[in-house]
Amino acid sequence: MKASFSKRHGFSQVDEAEIAVREDAPQALQEYLIQLSYECGLKPSGLREIICQTLKVLPDKQNWSETPNIHEENVQRLEQCKWFKVYDVIERLDDYFCNRNYDGDVHEHFTTELNEFFIEHGIGWKLIDGRIEMRGSESFEQVLNSAKETEHQHGHITASKELHQAIADLSRRPSPDPTGAIQHAMASLECVARQVTGDQQATLGRIMNDCRTLIPAHWIRRLSKLGRTRRSSDGTSRKGANRPSRTLNSLLACAPRSAAT
Fold first, then answer.
1. Which pTM was predicted?
2. Is the torsion defined by CA of 252, 169, 182, 249 positive or negative?
C-alpha cells in the first residue's frame, strides 16, 4: 500500500507508551480494528462474517445495508463480546489477509499498523506470525530477541523451544501463566548450561554451584530470587501487568551470555 507522507519523509517514529493494558480490549482498539479492516479492503459485510465466525453467532438478518446497518452491527458485536474475543477476531483477520485473500502489501500494512497501535496506546500485545503474543517494553523485546538469536546461532534448539513456550505462557488468554513462563525460561537456561558444561544430566542448581565461572555471582543471586518467585507466583493482576515481563527480563538477560560461552 502507498506509504503515508510521514513515513516517506521520516516523521513516523512510533512513540512507545508505557504498557498499561493486558486484560482488556479498549474501545479505541475496537474502533481502530474496524477502521483498519475497511482500509485493507474488507466491506462491513465481510468483516461481519469474520466477527460472527469468531464469536460463533449468526449475522443479524435484519441488517442488509453495508452502512450504517452492518457497520453498526460490527461495532456492537465487538463492544459486547468478552475482551479476549477481540484478539481472537484479530487473529482470524490476519488469517484472512494472509491465507484466504492474500496480498503481501495489504497483509504487511494490517500487521504493521496494528502493532504500531499497540505500542502507541500501551497495549501489551503484538501480532506476530498470525498469533497474538505478549509484548513487553522495548528493552524487554530487545533482550528477548537477543536471547532467541543467540540460541539459534549456537544450535540450542531445545532451549529455543523452551523460550518460545515461556512467551506462549505469558500470552495465554484470558489469564497469563507467569509461573509456567518462569519455569520454561529457566528450563531454557538449563538446556544451554548443560550443553556448555557437557553434562546432560545436571540441574541448573547444580551447575550454578559447580561452575561459578559460567554464571556470574550477581546472576546466581537473581536466579535464586526467580526460583522463589516461581514458587510463590499466583498470576497477574491488572495492577501488576508488567511484573511477569520484568521477571522474565531478568532471566533472559542470562541466556545470551551463557549461550555464547
1. 0.64
2. positive
